[in-house]
């Protein structure tokens, strides 16, 4: 019985993946995506160096704070991009409704580094490729959605 239960639990866990969906040009405006928000970085645990990128967004007159990504929470030195529409997703409105299927997240242009973007489907979440030292983290992560 325990073996069956363990197999069921393992099957229900989402497979973690590295962000990889990048069209020929990664500029979201090329694909008519609309700006959702500029998520700002805040330290959540000074000892671990972990951070969240959050922004306030107006959902039909109801403003709420959403987390787009985090750093060094699940794994050290890794940026994790949250799901737009999956459980607890950052794009879901106050009723849990999600009106888009395609999204993009981009690291900000700071320290002279060009914007780097990855696209996501509604229920995706992913880990940004590679690892980051704290000094190299972007100040902002920009989120986009397709109307």
Describe this structure in words.
The protein is mainly β. It has one domain (16-145). 7% of the residues lie in helices and 37% in strands. It is built from 1 helix and 8 strands. Strand 2 (50-59) and strand 3 (62-71) form a beta hairpin.
Count of distinct structural domains: 1
Q: What portion of the residues fall into strands of 2 or more residues? A: 35-45%
- DSSP strand count: 8
> End-to-end distance, in Å?
47 Å
Helicity level: under 10%
Order of helices and strands: HEEEEEEEE
- Which geometry do the CA atoms define? globular
The averaged pLDDT comes out at 82
Low-confidence stretches are 1-14
C-alpha Rg (nearest Å): 16 Å
In terms of quaternary structure, the protein is single chain
Per DSSP, the total helix count is 1
- What can be said about the biggest beta sheet? 8 strands, antiparallel
Q: What structural category do the secondary elements indicate?
A: mainly beta
Largest sheet: spatial strand order: 6-5-8-1-2-3-4-7
């Amino acid at each position: 019985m325990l073996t069956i239960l363990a197999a069921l639990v393992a099957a229900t866990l989402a497979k973690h993946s590295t962000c990889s969906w990048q069209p020929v040009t990664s500029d979201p405006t090329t694909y008519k995506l609309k700006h959702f928000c500029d998520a700002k970085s805040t330290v959540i645990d000074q000892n671990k160096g972990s951070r969240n990128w959050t922004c306030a967004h107006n959902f039909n007159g109801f403003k709420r704070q959403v987390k787009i990504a985090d750093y060094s929470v699940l794994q050290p030195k890794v940026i994790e991009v949250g799901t737009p529409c999956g459980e607890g997703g950052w794009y879901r409105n106050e009723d849990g409704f999600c009106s888009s299927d395609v999204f993009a997240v981009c690291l900000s242009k700071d320290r002279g580094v060009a914007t780097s973007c990855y696209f996501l489907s509604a229920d995706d979440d992913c880990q940004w490729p590679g690892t980051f030292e704290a000094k190299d983290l972007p100040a902002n992560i920009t989120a986009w959605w397709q109307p």
